[in-house]
Amino acid sequence: MSGSNALKRFTPRKTLAAIAVGSVLMMSAPGVMAADGLGVLKGHITNQTGSDIGNAKVVIKHESKGIVKETTTGVNGVFSLKGLPIGQYTVTIIKDGFYQVQEQHIAITLGNALTFDVSLDPENSNVERISVSGARISRVDTSSTTTSQVISIEELNQLPVELDSTAIALLTPGAVAGDDGFGGVAIGGSSVAENGYYLNGLNITDLRKGMGDIDLPWEAIAQTEVQTGGVSAEYGRFIGGVVNLVSKSGDNEWKFGAKAEVAPDALAEPSIRMKDDGSIEEISDGYWQETEYNMWASGALIEDKLFFYGLWNPNEEEETVYGENTLRDKEWDTNRWFTKVDWFMHEDHSLGVMAFSNEGDYTSTQYNRDEDGGRGDAIGLTESTYGGIGWNAQYTGYLTDDITLTAMYGEITQSTKDNSGTLDQSTYEDYRSGSYERLGDWVGYGSSEAEDKRITYRIDLDWVVGDHTLRAGYDYERLEIADIYTPHGDGWYEYYSAGADNSYGLAEGTEYADLRIWGKNSETENVHTALYISDTWAVTDTVTINAGVRYSEFSNTTGSGDKYVDLDGQFAPRLGATWDVLGDGSSKVYASYGRYFQPVSPNTNLRMASAAYDSHIVSLLESVNADGSPVLGSEIDRRVVADGSVPDADQLFNNKAGSMYSDEFALGYQQQLNDDWAVGIRGVYRDLKQSIEDVSFNYGMNQWIKDNYDANTWHAGNGETSAEDYFVGGWFPTLTNPGIGTELYYDVDGDGVKETVNVSSEQMGFPDATRTYKAVELSFSGNVTEDFTINGSYTWSKSEGNTEGLVRSDNEQADPGWTTSFDYPELMDNGEGYLPNDRRHNFKLYGVYNITEDLSVGFNSYLQSGRPINAFGVHPEDQGYCVEAIEIVGRCYGRDWYGASSFYADGEAAPRGSMGRTDWVYNVDLNLSYTLDMKTAGLLNFKLNVYNLFNFDGVTGVDEQYEFDSGAKNVRYGYPDSFQTPRYVRASVRYDF
Q: Quick one: signal sequence residues (predicted)?
């Protein structure tokens, strides 16, 4: 052998450990190119003495697409190839005077830089054989401080894991499930509304509330990356974590397939509930079943150049819910599809286009129950549509060996329309007995129509300069939100029986009705722009510095099109360092710091800055008619929260306020013990430095008026004759950072000219918003035998403060940026403590055992400690901030308007999270998969997933309402109100050919 014809081939042993070890090692993967859904291959070429070899040719070939890319090493022997489609590659190293080296089946994954280091042997005509030495493939990226985990669809198919972003993210350390009220995943102590979700570079985060991603055809997803810390500067608009997806695409070989899956009601255990007497009963008369189909085709339209992938994914879900006197049949029909075309027009230039749909229809028919408990007369029909279209186009260009350019443009439209139900009937809900009872034959609270659109584009440039890898970019995003809501009938009636010492001064036992009339009609907009630059600097062979900064600007408009939020100057530094401890890429110590900014939610536009009307009319309740409607007595109280006009932009956001942001510090260590085992440890600290909350400044404004006007001569042209009375009875919200002073513009005296109102932080009365997260994560993965792979972690964490973040789990407010937290100072009395996502101990273990080549068993299990419990009651007048509030305006709004929403029980302080914890929860899921290889006829797979195998009924939440607004004790306080999902089964058959 001689010259370039001498070939040295390295063929490492292939075992299940490749999956297991990779799971831990990828827990420190780079963000480079991750936002584009592409991968990175890098390496270092030396000779036998360890000297760098420059100008060596590196040729890589995608084994299923046939595309080829070439580069050469620099004078330092280093090469880097970015923007690579995921898949397996053959890598060839060529240098005159040295034997050629080739390695096959090198897997490039999403967001993970694979390192391929080679020591070349010099040519020697006297050598008759080629020695195998000096090559190393490592997935410990010693140049990155990002903590992430990548899992492929092939791995997921071997595990009993639902195909959705929440279930996949929950496999990672530091991730906990959101409360049952709205689900989702909380990463690193943040709320479920503070994560970012991407597909092929397109932001697919829920447009309106940011609580998870939009509905996707998951069969089309090839790999999922979950970033839980140390996220690079290319990402922004979140302070939680990132779930990054890349789709499947076509190859040279045409492939077809189909899959049918059913979750049958007959194999599902009934759900459970707790009765008023404290006993648990099964809800045996319910029904739920889901059926899903997938059909796909992929291949090359032009070999090695133009590829196609297409998927059709219809889904049907049916549910019947039985009430005491009624039952309801529900049906969701979703007609999802996905397509992707990739054109490798040139070795250095490619274009990918993706489009998908998640449109569907929902139907609900409600019936009275007949004497036998079955369907009687139909009461009402609800029909609605939902979903929309998403698409993007992405260009990747290798301008030189050292410069890579990517550019992306995309749009997503999501809409819902529901104009059905009993349009002429009001809602009647009865709480007089101390628990909820539905009255009457009404169907639906109101009619709604919404259309949301996201337009986004970005451009990213990578440039390798010596020991520096520079990355810079710009991204733009515009959200257009349109919303109409009209209540049915008169509105929403709630009936109560007054308790002792109630906020209305009624005698105990007096019955009253609260009518809420609420609706909206608005179009608003959010715009987010950002610039970033980062540098990965190889200081030495073993030490790397990651430094970057992201600059962003956020704005929100009112329903009149005026900006009410306009935040700039948001500099988010990202800094990290890694040390290759042993110098061989098998281990590293790393540390990172990052700052992350969170925009004001579009949901806040709708709730605060739109043409909304919201009022409460409280009246004595004389009696209740047979149809549930009230016979009202005299009016007790009336308050207007919103009068239907669009508020002025200059009075909605505090001029002194800044952005919501959080800081993260992390320190970790990774070690690849051998080919089969890897371990890792990471400590993390997160601190919410500043939050944005909706607050009411009634108290502070009243004090300001007293300081600036003569109460004896005050007259605002609105019938008020006392400065002290001006704001009593109204609600005046603004967005601000709690704990600071406020500057707004109001026409206080009614003369047509707005005054500059400066209210001090002391006059505002709010504490600073606080939230800290401390955690230690231990992880391991490996191969117990050649056929048995496991992956596990233990996380100790503590989450404390006085705000969960954008949403609030303890009262199920899935209303980002608009929760009751900080509405009035007294609502924050005793509000510091353990937060709802504080799961102190969390054990996770999952894996696969291959019984034979065709038969495998997969499992997924967890064990986690309970969540903190609160007690919500009526704020006493003689304690906390209520004392000061009454002195200022003569009443305490957090008591009078919010009822039992304070951290008090029986008039005594009940600090946040101090009423104990729910029990530990444990769960085991199992699956069995069998594949029949029919040779040229294809592969036939049968799979059975069993979730909650042992049908554990762990409590995931309890009723935290200690008393009602009336002051009456809630007899169900502390009762479990949410449980683990009972055992259910998914069975599927799949055919690939």
A: 1-34
- Claim: this prediction has a pTM higher than 0.85: yes
Residue bearing tokens 């009705």? 513
Residue 167 DSSP code: H
> Which pLDDT score, from 0 to 100, does residue 183 have?
85
DSSP track, 595-622 = EEEEPPPHHHHHHHSSEEEEEEEEEEEE
Please measure the distance between the N-terminal and C-terminal CA atoms of the chain and give it in whole angstroms: 41
* Token code pair at residue 375: 């369907």
Residue (of 209, 213, 188) closest to 199 by Cα position: 213
108 close to 125: Cβ distance less than 8 angstroms: no
In whole angstroms, give the CA distance from residue 44 to residue 78: 4
pLDDT at 643: 83
Per-residue pLDDT at 144: 87
- The neighbouring-strand residues paired with 100 are 7
Residue 731 has what pLDDT?
63
Positions of the chain with pLDDT under 70: 1-37, 112, 125-136, 138-139, 711-731
Domains within the chain, CATH numbers bracketed = 3-15+27-138 (2.60.40.1120), 153-372+384-654+661-691+769-801+835-865+917-992 (2.40.170.20), 698-762 (no CATH)
Residue 464 CA from chain centroid, whole number: 33
Question: How does DSSP assign 503-556, residue by residue?
Answer: TT-PPTT-EEEEEEEEEEEEEEEEEEEEEEEEEEEE-SSSEEEEEEEEEEEEEE
3-state secondary structure of 869: coil
How far is 116 from 71, CA to CA, in rounded Å?
14
What interhelical angle do 880-889 and 698-708 show, nearest 10?
40
Q: How far apart are CA 600 and CA 691, in angstroms?
A: 10
pLDDT tens, residue by residue, 563-594: 999 999 999 999 999 999 998 888 999 999 99
Residue that is written with structure tokens 């009936």 in the block: 495
